[in-house]
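Thread amino acids onto this structure.
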């Protein structure tokens, strides 16, 4: 194995784990399918939070959410626990001599435009911040070069190369008008050329960086290229060329998947139902939204293919690890919900494909793994010692077949958290508690309840099982602190 290989981490926002061609034949992802055929797909990868900022902060520093203190999208690690930043995996790579490049959406620092989102619909929509104003914070996190954009909606208020390009070519007004139309239940193509759709633009930025790097005097220096596609996050608005790849009438739905949660359900599920307008969600709309979402994934897949092609044509592919994952999933109509921040499988399971240099015979690993295991694996590849109390666990033994054919259990417990709420996942059980009180809220038997429709926490004779799981696994490690209101986006 090469001493200092390159790393490309591709992290789209809100990509649900089962929206891949290799898992769901309805979806067109030939390039991701090819990566998986030359590497490893982890079928049960769990995010540390079904919400952007908490998941990304945990990924950066290899800690759980209660350790980073970034419990919501309004809590950032620079304020909640800045002491962890020096040991981010990016800073550890930088000490090894790596160029760490930020391209796209990272959602690791606070932009003032985030607070302006509540003004969506304001007829005087305007840019009030710029990503470049915060690059010093990104450099503290370990990036050496930044070409950031914000998410689809926040970009309406925050300047970047993307916004500059829209303005230069006369599309900013259309973009702003689109932002003002936004509710979650909008599934229509954005009326701009594909080259100016945010995910296409981010893909092109990454491709341009690679082309320039490979021609530069620094081309012999190892790099970690972190690409953050803002999609397929809602709104479901991929441009028409990709929307037309999918006919909503042909999208197949499964009745069990669409079952609504049984009352009484936790406050965060009620919040999700309100935001999703669950009472008004129809199967026709779910099909329409999925067609748009699938189209967005296919667009991203196309850019993944172009990135791989450049590496191959320039003789760099055989010295590069490619990792494709996401910060969290998307309900996409499952349980009549949209977005994330709940602990159903659709929100907490993320795609995870790892292709090593020179490739390998593709395989699927069923073991439960965590998103924070990914940067730990990069450090293991480089034989870099882990910081104290690092929570990630290297995936190399699984990738390199060292544990194949054994009863190896990668992790006895996986943890995901948001606000006051915490999920524990064991081989047999998924359980959710209000971590401020320890009260059991949800309990599912994984083998016999794939779609998580039978909440056993509501059944008195099963309730004690969930309570025992909490006492065994979470009570001693997750502090009983209370987030105002219990939950915030």
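Threaded sequence (489 positions):
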């Amino acid at each position: 194995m090469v001493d200092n290989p390159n790393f490309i981490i591709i992290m789209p926002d809100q990509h649900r784990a089962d929206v891949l061609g290799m898992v769901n034949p309805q979806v067109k992802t030939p390039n991701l399918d090819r990566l998986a055929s030359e590497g490893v797909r982890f079928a049960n990868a769990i995010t540390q939070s079904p919400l952007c900022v908490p998941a990304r902060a945990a990924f950066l520093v290899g800690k759980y959410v209660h350790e980073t203190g970034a419990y919501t999208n309004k809590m950032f690690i620079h304020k909640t626990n800045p002491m962890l930043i020096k040991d981010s995996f990016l800073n550890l790579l930088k000490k090894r001599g790596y160029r760490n490049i930020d391209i796209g959406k990272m959602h690791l620092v606070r932009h003032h435009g985030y607070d302006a989102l509540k003004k969506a619909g304001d007829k005087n929509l305007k840019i009030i911040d710029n990503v470049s104003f915060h690059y010093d914070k990104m450099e503290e996190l370990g990036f050496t070069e930044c070409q950031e954009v914000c998410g689809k909606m926040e970009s309406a208020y925050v300047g970047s190369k993307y916004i500059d390009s829209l303005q230069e070519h006369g599309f900013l007004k259309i973009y702003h008008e689109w932002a003002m139309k936004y509710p979650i239940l909008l599934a229509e193509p954005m009326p701009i050329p594909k080259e100016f759709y945010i995910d296409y633009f981010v893909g092109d930025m990454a491709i341009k960086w690679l082309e320039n790097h490979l021609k530069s005097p620094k081309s012999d220096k190892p790099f970690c290229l972190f690409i953050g596609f803002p999609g397929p996050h809602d709104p479901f608005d991929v441009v028409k060329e990709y929307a037309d790849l999918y006919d909503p009438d042909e999208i197949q739905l499964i009745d069990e998947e669409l079952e609504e949660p049984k009352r009484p359900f936790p406050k965060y599920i009620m919040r999700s139902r309100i935001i999703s307008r669950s009472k008004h969600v129809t199967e026709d709309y779910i099909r329409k939204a999925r067609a748009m979402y699938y189209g967005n994934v296919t667009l991203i897949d196309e850019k993944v293919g172009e990135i791989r092609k450049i590496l191959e044509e320039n003789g760099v592919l055989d010295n590069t690890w490619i990792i494709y994952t996401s910060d969290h999933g998307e309900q996409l109509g499952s349980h009549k919900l949209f977005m994330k921040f709940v602990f159903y499988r659709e929100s907490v399971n993320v795609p995870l494909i790892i292709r090593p240099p020179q490739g390998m015979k593709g395989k699927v690993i069923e073991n439960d793994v965590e998103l924070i295991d990914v940067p730990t694996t990069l450090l293991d590849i480089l034989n870099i010692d882990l910081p104290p109390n690092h929570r990630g666990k290297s995936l190399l033994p699984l990738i390199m077949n060292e544990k194949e054919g054994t009863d190896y259990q990668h992790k006895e417990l996986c943890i995901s958290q948001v606000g006051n709420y915490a999920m524990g996942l064991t081989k047999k059980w998924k359980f959710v508690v209000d971590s401020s009180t320890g009260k059991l809220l949800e309990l599912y038997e994984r083998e016999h309840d794939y779609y998580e429709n039978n909440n056993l926490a509501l059944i008195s004779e099963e309730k004690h099982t969930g309570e025992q799981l909490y006492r065994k696994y979470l009570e001693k490690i997750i502090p009983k602190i209370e987030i105002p209101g219990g939950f915030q986006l």
